[in-house]
């Protein structure tokens, strides 16, 4: 009888833990969705500078700056500023070969940056869909404090969007993405560190994408936030 009672207690405890974990995950997903929605709405009153730096084999190859703001129609607008620079072209046959390689790399960089933008900001609708399908997994980074929620197949089959959060502060800390750019078999990973503005608005402060096979690194930083004219 005692053995039976112990089994029943263990089963009840296991059920309680499972329900508690499900409740915590649901609350964390809800927090992420609310944070994304609130920050997206608040960002519309700001303008800022986006700086994209490209490194090849550890050497800086280009820097592009864009002024970012939300237009009247609600669309994010980016206008290139005078703070951009690129390497000068070289002449001769050797120069043409170098330029061809640069063009190939430039095309890849454009695709990579475009891919990054499909994850920024994450879609609350997609996150809810993945959670609703029971695909979300949770990693404990720091008990009762920091967690990482993984959302597989976020944009396409095989990719993963991971959101690390500080639960007590109700803040997103980092996004990690595993995806591909050209070849689905060649995975690339990039991470986005979130920052906070004085009014609590969160934004993608720094994005770093590295492609070891191409000796390529792309760094995108957002800074210089201020109230947009007329807002």
What does this protein look like?
- This protein has 231 residues and is an alpha+beta fold.
- The chain has one domain (2-227).
- Helices cover 33% and strands 40% of the residues.
- It has three helices and eleven strands.
- It has helices at 2-43, 92-117, 124-132, and strands at residues 46-56, 59-70, 76-80, 85-86, 137-142, 146-152, 160-166, 171-180, 187-196, 202-211, 216-227.
- Strands 1, 2, 3, 4, 5, 6, 7, 8, 9, 10 and 11 form an eleven-stranded antiparallel sheet that branches.
- A hairpin with a 6-residue loop joins β8 (171-180) and β9.
- α1 runs antiparallel to α3 (124-132).
- The longest helix is centred in the N-terminal third of the chain and has 42 residues, at 2-43.
- It starts with a helix and ends with a strand.
Which regions contain 5 or more consecutive residues with pLDDT less than 50? 4-21
Mean pLDDT: 85
Kindly name the structural category. Answer: alpha+beta
Largest sheet: number of strands, sense, barrel closure: 11 strands, antiparallel
Query: How many domain modules?
Result: 1
Structural shape: globular
What is the total tally of β strands? 11
The number of helical elements comes to: 3
Work out the strand percent. Answer: 35-45%
Element order: H for helix, E for strand:
HEEEEHHEEEEEEE
Helix amount, in percent? 25-40%
Radius of gyration: 22 Å
Distance between the termini: 72 Å
Summary tags:
231 residues; alpha+beta; eleven-stranded antiparallel β-sheet; 33% helix; 40% strand; globular
